[in-house]
Amino acid sequence: MSSDDYAPGNDALLSVDEARVRLSQRDLSLSIPINFMTIPGVSLTAACFGDRVISEGELARCYSNLLSVGFRRFELDLYWDAARSLWSFCPVEMQQMPEDDGGSAAPLQSRTTSATSTNPGSLSFPAGVGTSISGQSSNGALSIPGISGGASSSPAPTPQSGPTADQGDYKCSPAATLETFGHQLHSYIVETQNTLAAQLSYYVFNIHAAASAASPQSPAPAPINLPVDRELIGGMLSNNLSSYIYTPINLANNRANLNSSWYTVPERYRPVTDYYTVKIDDNGVWTTEDGWPSESFIQFSSLKRALFQFGTIDPQMQGADYEPDADILFPSGFITDPQNNVTLNSTGHVTSGCYLHSPPATPG
Hints:
The protein is an alpha/beta fold. The chain has one domain. About 20% of the residues lie in helices and about 15% in strands. The protein has helices at about 15-30, 45-50, 55-70, 180-190, 235-240, 250-255, 295-300, and strands at about 40-45, 55, 75-80, 85-90, 110, 165, 170, 200-210, 280, 285, 305-315, 345, 350. Strands 1, 3, 4, 8 and 11 form a five-stranded mixed sheet that branches. Strands 2-7-6-5 form a four-stranded mixed sheet. Strand 3 (about 75-80) and strand 4 (about 85-90) form a beta hairpin. Helix 3 (about 55-70) runs parallel beside helix 4 (about 180-190) and helix 4 (about 180-190) packs parallel to helix 5 (about 235-240).
């Protein structure tokens, strides 16, 4: 099995009861703006590379499993490998693996991991919201289109990894890159596009400089050649994901005319207007400056499946021009920060202001 595939392991498949819970949660939140939804999130580095072995196969297995069990917000630590001019998950610069030269190369270790396969499909706007569970395997795992019915007695296919090399405290594979992750995300979207597993997912990218291979224990220097144009994160991911990304441009266009965007769908899928301010101009056009669509609008009407956001940017990487990515990635904190008119205490409780507004009647 290719490391580009979405391939959750048998132990990551949902039971029927777990699937019912997830579908119920989805149904209850269909009309809630996405910036008010609470969803499970995780650091990909902490979850997948805790043993400091960083390979494309490990990434495929771990990321697939996290998606399968319900994680939908991911924080990714990406390292600009100036030696190769690409984004890597390895904190140290690498070279492409040398050919076998009789043993002079650094010790290599091949690493593969278990997973199972899924089936492709395509998403369409539903007439209603399906919550029925069509089948169950003998071990109680969920059996729906696009997801395996559960563990089998035969060995599962395995995502393949290239050999890893010692890079300071890490063992890294050259193919554990943003490009590989983009293929894995694309595979997940395609494989789940017409199944009950289709959901919106969010990605926050923390930007770092990779340490020098000659001095992997030292702080990373500021790269001489910073990423430009299609080397930027948004440029890389939009190569094969552009039709699935809900972008800042999409949001701005939606907000500028709600009559022709969020309110063109059946009422049950419209974002509840209590959560944002609305203005109506002399021509009856509804606009909002702070509103967000519901997941049902983004996913079922716009056919989008992913949102990207900048996270932190290390000082060594702040000299790069990220402006071309502004059309693809939301600014840091744009999706996750609290509302401007709301004050929270250290435990997250509201101390002043209110999340809800008093909206005018929704246009018919």
